[in-house]
What does this fold into?
Amino acid sequence: MATHGHTTTTAAARARSRRVEGQARGLGRVVEEEPYCSDVLTQVAATTQALQSAALTLLDAHLEHCVTAAVAKGGADKEAKLKEVSQALARLTRV
It folds into this structure.
């Protein structure tokens, strides 16, 4: 059975996920309190950073395991994984 990259970094992914959840809850609280605009923007930035950090952790694992294995195997699997990574990077960098 194939091991997906994220399974080897599950603890880190869970920690990042909890941080994202906490940041999102914090953003919700800040918005409900109707604070100064700059305070909301600070919380938005913290939430965005937590999401980006989680995405990069998962992307690193995917590249290290799934993509490396597909490239070593070659053929259609290699091409599919490279296209998949390119599409993921496009989604992550879309502003």
The mean pLDDT is 85.
